[in-house]
Design goal:
Elements: H1 2-21, H2 26-35, H3 40-52, H4 58-72, H5 77-86, H6 98-110, H7 119-131, H8 136-146
Length: about 150
């Protein structure tokens, strides 16, 4: 029995080192513990202890990611869903429309748009929005809202 408790103590210590670097979800932590060779019952005990002590909170991670991808780095639905799935979380119900988040992303990244942009700049802006997880139609509409000087033929 002492070997078991020592092994749990090691798993908890390792988990705390990971959590010191960044917040992880239960899913991510369970994956890491399994990769280190801890079995399912050990992993479950470690996760329960960490939750009880307040070190592990999926809700805290969920709130932080929602804030990041809607306010700090406005992103599209595709990117948000992909990131939440990767971390084993259900995606949030997003407030506001996708296009407004795309326009905010453009303002945060590029500021005020130039009156006469080069086609190369327009393409760069469009790629930026696509990389942020916005769908092409949303990106195009957002570009027109952000820079009304764009013609419809780009």
């Amino acid at each position: 029995m002492q070997g078991q408790s020592e092994r749990l103590a090691q798993a908890i210590a390792q988990s705390l080192r990971w959590l010191r670097v960044r917040d992880l979800t239960s899913y991510e932590l369970a994956q890491r513990l399994t990769a280190k060779g801890y079995d399912e019952s050990e992993t479950r005990e470690v996760l329960e202890w960490l939750r009880a002590e307040g070190y592990l909170s999926d809700e805290r991670v969920r709130e932080r990611l929602t804030e990041r991808y809607t306010d700090e780095q406005p992103s599209g639905r595709l990117r948000i869903e992909r990131e939440f799935a990767r971390r084993g979380l259900c995606p949030p119900e997003l407030e506001g429309d996708e296009e407004s988040r795309a326009v905010r992303a453009l303002f945060r990244r590029y500021g005020e748009p130039p009156a006469e942009p080069e086609p190369r700049e327009i393409a760069r802006w469009f790629r930026f929005l696509l990389q942020r997880g916005f769908e092409p139609e949303v990106a195009q509409n957002a570009l027109h809202r952000w820079n009304p000087h764009l013609n419809d033929q780009w």
